[in-house]
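Researcher: Please predict.
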Amino acid sequence: MLQAIPSRLHCRLSTFVRFPLLLFVNCSFLLFLCCEGCNRMSTEHLAAGSTCPPMEDGELRLYGMRFCPFTQRVRIVLNAKGVPHRIVNINLKNKPDWLLQVHPEGKVPALADGDKVVVESLDIADFLDDKFPDPPLYPADPELKGRDKELIQKFGKVVGATSRAIYNKENLPLEDYMKDILEPLEEFEAELESRGTTFFGGDEPGMLDFMMWPWSERSKVPSALQDKEFQFPKEKFSKLVAWREAMKDVPAVKDSITPLETHVKFLKGYFGADPVFDNL
């Protein structure tokens, strides 16, 4: 669906693209949570009172937030495609007014491409895969592609469970949260076993791998925030353990990784009265 953007927007965006709603695909105000060379990323998270950086002709721009897992999804796809782009980071606790002209709900990620904006991380990833088909991130076989898309949707259970564990609003024992995370992962372990490959995408990672990674990266955050040890059942999930180690060395992923201690430091500040987005 296309939605008109007010012509007064000084970022020079005129069309808002929104595909059918998908669960767990953006970061809102209550967050649970680049490439080098020709790609640029703002050195600070822009806040209220800032101005939207003017877009250059032909610029592909990602509005995001450094610690947002949904933004990370898009960054990984851009890296995998080798597409020149610019990242403008947003302070989600003190948003600039002009963000509402980019995304009517004031959320990230949002991808500006010429005169249109695509929102929702999964929709942005598919948009990029269609616009920049090399390398393809889905299997050529329609049935296999459909299976990968189905698994991406099913992974939403892990996304939601991880978010609840990090926020800990229910004040439950860590083991209860982890149970909700591990149960849906059983299907993914079995899927890797069935495929007989290191990655879900085969010898190289594909869209499913990339869409899962940000939450694998944050798998130890809940226990670190609660300062508790959790013994992950590595033998039960041996394929996923090997997958996680292999993903760390994938260049498109490696460029996007934030260390565990930095995630924890950011989130502790984010949950407090004076969150820090920069210089972490």
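Model: The first helix runs from residue 69 to 81.
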